[in-house]
Design brief:
Number of helices: 4
Number of strands: 5
CATH class: Alpha Beta
Shape: globular
Number of domains: 1
Helix content: 25-40%
Radius of gyration: 17 Å
C-alpha cells in the first residue's frame, strides 16, 4: 500500500541531508569526492551563465530554466527523478536574477516578425518570479508536496559563487 506523500519525506530526509552535505562540500569548500555510480540529486537552477556549479562526477543531473522556474519542466523533472530513484531535489535560485523583473520588450531585438515578438512578451511577463529567495522557497515546498521528496532551497550568490541554504 502506498504511503501518503507527506509521510515519505521523513524517510528520505537523512539521505537528503547527506546529499546536501556533498553539494555544499563540493561547491563551497571545493572538497573532492569519488565519482558516484548513480545520481543522488536533481538540481533545478536558472539558465544564467554566471551559475557555475562544482559537482562530483555523476552526483546530480541539472535542469536549467529561466529563474529556476519549475512550471515549464516539472513533468521532465518528475520523470527523471522517478526513473533514477533520486530522493532529493535542490532548487537553486540566485542573486541578481533577471527574471525577478524581466523586461519583456527585450525580445524586440530578435530578427523576427512582430506577431512572434508579441507572443514572447506575454510569455516572459507570465514567467516573472518577483523575489528569487521567496520564489525558491515556494518552489521547494511545492515540489515536496507534489513529489513527496525533500526539496532543498538554495541561493547561488553570483558575486561570491557560493551556495546558501535557505
Amino acid at each position: 500500500m502506498n504511503q501518503p506523500r507527506a509521510s515519505l519525506i521523513p524517510a528520505f530526509q537523512s539521505e537528503a541531508d547527506q546529499t546536501l552535505e556533498v553539494l555544499l562540500g563540493s561547491h563551497n569548500l571545493e572538497k573532492d569526492y569519488e565519482p558516484f555510480t548513480l545520481p543522488k540529486l536533481a538540481i533545478v537552477t536558472c539558465m544564467d551563465y554566471r551559475i557555475q556549479l562544482r559537482l562530483p562526477k555523476n552526483f546530480a543531473f541539472v535542469l536549467r530554466t529561466g529563474g529556476a522556474n519549475i512550471r515549464p519542466i516539472e513533468t521532465y523533472l518528475a520523470f527523471s527523478v522517478a526513473r533514477t530513484g533520486i530522493h532529493a531535489i535542490a532548487i537553486i535560485g540566485h542573486t541578481d536574477c533577471a527574471m525577478e523583473k524581466p523586461d519583456p520588450y527585450v525580445v524586440d531585438e530578435l530578427p523576427t516578425d512582430n506577431e512572434t515578438k508579441i507572443f514572447y512578451r506575454s510569455q516572459i511577463a507570465s514567467l516573472a518570479i518577483k523575489d528569487a529567495r521567496e520564489y525558491t522557497l515556494a518552489q521547494a515546498k511545492m515540489l515536496e508536496e507534489r513529489l513527496g521528496l525533500p526539496g532543498l532551497p538554495l541561493i547561488y550568490d553570483v558575486e561570491t559563487h557560493k551556495l546558501e541554504l535557505l
